[in-house]
Amino acid sequence: MKAIVIGASGGIGKALADALEARGGEVQRLSRSAGTIDLEQPASIAAAAERLRASGPFDRIVVATGLLHDGSQQPERSLRDLHAGSLARSFAVNAIGPALVARHFLPLLPPLGRSVFAALSARVGSISDNRLGGWYGYRASKAALNQLMRTASIELARSRPDAICVTLHPGTVDTRMSAPFQRGVAPEKLFTPATSAGHLLDVIEKLGPEDNGGCFDWAGKTIPF
User: For residue 47, what are the contacts with CB-CB under 8 A and spacing of at least 6?
Assistant: First the structure.
């Protein structure tokens, strides 16, 4: 099995790449920190796909990237916290970047035979499940990601009927992204990156054609849009 993990320097991305290799996969690791891809730079995405074209096709492609907070922005608690720049950046990293990855990397899947393209989303991206509010940019950009991948899955099925395109919720994982928000999370619901990666790969391996375009959590349960 040949695989690509985009965001392979992050907590979940590295764990996914390690787990794929442990399962016998040959993994191409791409990340901004390694200088091999930058989801905020469209030319970088296209160039990364072109470099790997001769090494394909690839059976598994996972986009393990996301932005909730960093040194320049925090998740919004109310409308008063909304700023055009931070909203635009949330969409650039969480929705537009993965969509452009799909544009350039879906053609690297085999034309025949089962293959999976998965992008990490989040349960808070579910519109119908939103009961708490807040986190405007993160929620909206992950909802956009779900819609973009759903739309891509329909087009993908026309050229690659055995391929599956989904979004996945990894659970609450003990990484820098979740660190400020772990208070109140039950210990058994706070996963190590390795545990989350194992769950996600198990879900990926159980997906069938009927699951194309869906959004699933770490246990394989459907998350409503």
Answer: none
